[in-house]
Amino acid sequence: MSDDPSGFLPLPDLTLHVLLALADGPLHGWAAIKRIEELTRGRKSPSSGSLYLAIVRLEDRGLLEEVPPPPDVERDDERRRYHRLTVLGRRVLEAETERLAGLVEVARRSGVGPG
Amino acid sequence: MSTGRRGGWWRGMGERVYGLALLVLPRALRRKAGGAMAATFRARQEERLRGAGPRGLPSLWVRELGGLLVTALRARLPDRATAGPPPGRTSGPASSSLDRLVQDVRFALRVFARRPLPMGLAVVTFGLGVGTSTAMVSVVDALLVRGLPYPEPGRLVSVYPTLPAWRDDPELGTLWQRGRFSPVEFFELEREQEGAFEALGAVLSERLTLTGGVAAPEVVQGFAVSPGTLTTLGISPALGRAFTEDDLRADPPPVLLSHGLWMRRFGGDPGAVGDVLRSGERAFPVVGVLPVGSRMPWGTTDYLSPLDVSANPSRNLHDTRAIGRLAPGVGLDRAQEEASAILLRNVPDAAHQQHTAFLVPLQDDLARGARTPALVLMGASLLLLAVACGSVAAILLGVGLDREAELGVRRALGAGHGRVVAQLLTEGLVLALGGGLVGLGVATWTVDLLVGLAPEGFPGIEAVGLDARTTLVALGLSTAAALVAALGPAVALVRRPVGDALRAVRTATPGAGRLQTGLVVGELALATVLLVGSGLLVRTLRNLDAADPGFETERVVAVSTSASLLLDGLLARDRTRAFEELRLYVEEVVDALAGLPGVEGAAAVSPLPLGGGRADNRLAPADREVPEEERPVAARRAVTVRFFETAGIELLEGRGFTREDARTGDSVTVLSEGLARALWPAGSPVGRSVLWGTGTYRVVGVAGNVRDREPRSPTELAFYVPTGVTGSIPTDYLVRTAGDPRPLIPAIRERIWSVDPDVPLLSVRTLAEHRRDTVSEERYRARLMLVFAILAVLFALTGVYGVVSRAVARRRREMGLRIALGAARSGIHALVLRQSLWIGLSGTALGLLLAVLAGRTVERFLYGVEPGDPATLLAIALLVLGAVTAASLGPSLKATRVDPAETLRAE
Fold first, then answer.
1. How many angstroms away from the CA of A111 is the closest CA of chain B?
2. Looking at the complex, does the CB of residue B26 fall below 8 Å from at least one CB of chain A?
3. Which of residues 719-738 of B touch A (CB under 8 A)?
4. CA–CA distances in Å: residue B569 to residues B253, B312, B564, B565
5. Which of B29, B37, B50 should one mutate to test binding to chain A, selecting the residue with the greatest count of A CBs within 10 A?
6. Given B146, B352, B441, B564, which is the most exposed site by the fewest CB atoms within 10 A?
7. Average pLDDT over residues B134-151
8. Which of A38, A44, A51, A52 should one mutate to test binding to chain B, selecting the residue with the greatest count of B CBs within 10 A?
9. Which residue does chain B place closest to A54, by CA atoms?
């Protein structure tokens, strides 16, 4: 796939958080929610429906892919689906992070935000 | 860590509900991620249970289910929220559902545009059905569902004195059961009650004509209330102060203005407190203003004035209403017992009949006249909606059958049953939208009509109106009805074999055609039921109007005044001479009225015929022993000398009263015919005596029976006494005129005020108008039912037209052949009419059967006619059949005009 990551920017809020949550490795839905809560210090907690709609759409666009559950995980719920970032997904996440960093830099130079 | 058994139950419940809720998602999304969503939900539940226990679950459920609904919606919208450019694929959970919906709607609109007549008819029919139903729902809501505008209205009761026998008899649900108090009785009740009531209030109606001030003179409605009344209803002034002890004896009395009156006459100026309300020569100090929307339960309230029940010792004036608030935790029965005990204890002598108390929850009391008719009309309007649905279904079916070819092509190209049904349902929903909008318009108009037609003072009628709630109901009804109407035809149409549909084979289709006919027969039946109902009600009304009341109504004017207030005024001035003063005053007024040009005679009477008062006196013949229970109970009327001639009541035996009787103070009485027969079945009662209480009264005459109170109540037993004899002084007047009484009404008012300008007049109108009022409820019912019936018939007839048209269209070839073979026009007509007659007969027969079966429920509204009255049923049946025939004439004419050559060529 040779999509240009910049074509996906700017990322909507939930999308960014989902990609961030999966940056460290594949997770299933519940774990992704917990990770998002952790990342935002409890401010953001998507419902199961919203989360999976976002995941399904990202999958359609090629930013995520489903993977089989890691072998060392307890099979307590068979319905769980695990997803991870694709190469494209990772590149999109990087691109967005850079963009945001650039913004923060501009803000800092203008005297706004944490010094 | 275990979360306990209860936790387990909640967990399972949550999962099950979530699983069901997944159904709102588009299928593709559900298949892909539904399981994962459920797993995630499960995990969240576990965490919440561990943290907060089962108590924490509801908030989680709300979040998750809400999120699911939002997701379901977003999943159907174009995907712009996830990331940049739209995806390459066009089929996915996101785009197709919405696109298809838009496609369907556009197609539906095109279908409608090509067939404006039937679709327009469908929208209008729908609108009428939905509109009337919505209007009825809002009426029922305002009158029966919404509570009274007082704190804790469930504890409010009306208190009535009644005879013990009547209280326990549910059949006597008429005004007879509910008497009014004399001020002294109320005073004793309030003073002696031992805690069953948190508060009690006495109320009298008043009217004033306001003069001076900002606006033009207007007549306003007020209530004189005892101090307990405001406490009972929980009303306190928004401005100024409530009444105090001193106010009770003030002259002129202070008033509390309603918010409306304050705005109208004082422009909302806070300086009104301290100002006065002027009526002629009198100026009433304004001490406060009531909050917006505050009113007495019985309707328009423009002002309140204080009422002192301790001032009036009379036991014979029965015009005081009583309401109470039950103490917390006290039941109706206990309060009723306590009140009854007080009443029984305080009966002064055997002349006064013992009364017990009868308590009714205030809301029920107010709705009494309205409850059953409102519900019956609600039922009628829902029937109407059903008929409207049937009509629309028939129309949709007809249109669908015409579109068979097009639908057949779709199906042949692979559209599944679901798709076709979905499309047809979408058409139904578009119809619903159109119909709903029309319906809202109809509902607004209907509500205005209902309120306008309603008899004056119909409790709560001013609260009827369309608001957010009822609008939602309208849209809900509209949608539900549309789906119902569209589903049947939709299913019937898809069940037809595709091949037939493609070839547009116009063979007799057992399924769809029969369904359409069946619908129309059903509609006719329902319309017949409504027609029978209204026919019966109309006849009842005519019977009530025609019933002879026993007195003259056309040329007599009735003036009612507030007796208690009158007496209060006199008592305040000079207690010892008050009654004598009152008697002289009344005679002066009667003489003044009799002297008016155009007046043949005048008299005073209390209570007025068809008026209030109480039938509570037991009489016995003086010449033999009659046990207590067998003594007839009669109403007592105090009258002045010319009463019988003035009222047009025939004197069958003996004579009326003369001034001699008044002068000698002889205890004489005139009996009504019914009472005379009850006391002495044989022989003339003139010259004999009756016992009433401790007194003996000589019978000097017998008067014709008078139908009293409601025209439907049994003829009242009554006896008449001259003014002053039993301590009763009549304070209402009858004036008999030579010609049309109406032009004399202002003169009558003037004349009464010329004797004493401060006397409050409650109403001045002809006895005929007074009497018409007593049947106002029946009239209202009959009119509404008639309107509904006419609408139902119109709907049903459109259905008939549709069915017959279709039948004719289907048999074009046959018609063409027949004509070519020389069939007469009349033969063709007969052919068409035979089918429509068959439909008409089945519908009518079914309807008549239903009407007879339902007869029992409407029996109590009827008078002079039975629910199964054959004349009415026959007339309605003929009417409906006639209408059906008329509706079929159009199609049958079309049938005769079929060009045989054309149809044969089309072979």
1. 31
2. no
3. none
4. 11, 10, 9, 6
5. B37
6. B441
7. 75
8. A52
9. B82
Residue B903 confidence (pLDDT): 62
pLDDT in tens, B564-582: 666 766 776 777 777 788 8
Task: Please report residues of B whose CB lies closer than 8 A to that of A29.
Answer: 36-37, 39-40
pTM: 0.57
Query: Would an 8 Å CB–CB cutoff place B39 in contact with chain A?
Result: yes
For B661-670, how does the pLDDT look when each residue is reduced to its tens digit (9 = 90+)?
766 767 888 9
Q: Is the pLDDT of residue B33 over 80?
A: yes
Give contacts of B63 with chain A, Cβ < 8 Å.
47
Beta carbons within 10 angstroms of residue B822's beta carbon: 8
To test the contact with chain A by mutation, choose from B29, B40, B59 the residue with the greatest count of A C-beta atoms within 10 A, namely: B40
d(CA A74, CA A64): 23
Whether B333 has a pLDDT exceeding 80, the answer reads yes
Cβ contact, residue pair A48, B68, below 8 Å: yes
The confidence score (pLDDT) of residue B905 equals 63
* E strand segments, B464-585: 556-561
Of A50, A55, A60, the CB nearest to B67: A50
Rounded Cα–Cα distance for residues B524 and B789 (Å): 11
From the centroid of its chain, how far is CA B165? 29
B160-195 pLDDT, tens digit each: 887 776 666 554 445 455 678 888 889 999 999 888
At B157, the pLDDT band (50, 70, 90 cuts) reads: very high
Amino acid at B536: L
- The CA distance from B564 to B678, in Å, is 33
Under 8 Å between Cβ of B362 and B158 = yes
Q: Which chain B residues contact residue A48 at CB under 8 A?
A: 37-38, 40-41, 44, 64, 67-68
Contacts of B354 (CB under 8 A, 6+ apart): B163, B164, B343, B344, B347
Contacts of B29 in chain A (CB under 8 A): 52-53, 56
Query: Which three-class secondary structure state does DSSP give residue B368?
Result: helix
B534-571 exposure pattern, b = at least 16 Cβ within 10 A, e = fewer? bbbbbbbbebbeeeebbbbbebbbbbbbbbbbbbbbbb
Per residue in B796-812, pLDDT tens? 777 777 777 777 766 77
Distance spanning both ends of chain A, measured CA to CA = 40
- CA distances for B812 relative to B85, B211, B404, B885, B887, angstroms: 58, 77, 17, 20, 19
- Tell me: the pLDDT tens digits for B479-519? 887 777 777 677 666 666 665 555 554 444 445 567 677 77
Chain B residue numbers with beta carbons less than 8 Å from the beta carbon of A12 are 81-83
B394: exposed, middle or buried (Cβ count in 10 Å: 0-12, 13-18, 19+): buried
Mean pLDDT, all residues of chain B: 78
In sequence order, what are the residues at sequence separation of 6 or more whose Cβ sits closer than 8 angstroms to the Cβ of residue B679? B619, B620, B621, B632, B671, B685, B690
Contact at CB, B83 and A53, closer than 8 angstroms: no
**Is A60's CB within 8 Å of B38's CB?**
no
Encoded amino acid at B420, one letter: V
Question: What CA–CA distance (Å, rounded) separates B527 from B370?
Answer: 24
Does the distance separating the beta carbons of B40 and A61 come in below 8 Å? Answer: no
Does A74 contact chain B (CB < 8 Å)?
A: no
Instruction: Report the alpha-carbon distance of residue B134 to residue B440 in Å, rounded.
Output: 8
